[in-house]
Amino acid sequence: MSFLEKIQNQPKNIRKIIFWTIIVSLGITFLILWVYGIKTKLEEMKGKNLFEDLTPQNSNEKLESWPKVETPKTPEITDEEWKKLEEELNKETGGQNSPEQK
To answer: What DSSP string describes 5-74?
Structure first.
């Protein structure tokens, strides 16, 4: 009889105990590995000053080195030009977008 068959032939309460023992031991193992990994990462970062790069002075200097983006100016439109545009829009749409109809 194989090891798996021996477990399958055990009563249900024994199988539950085996199952939960394995689950708890795996959970504890993963928890220990996770804590060890966190400890290692913290020790690696111990020598570094994490907040030095995040000061506003450094970030402003970095932003000043970026290229400037210029946006084009929008042309000024007079009331007469707005009325002409609305008339043309009403002609094309058959007056469906007219604010007076709403």
So the answer is: HHHHTS-HHHHHHHHHHHHHHHHHHHHHHHHHHHHHHHHHHTTS-TTTTTSHHHHHHHHHTSPP--PPPP
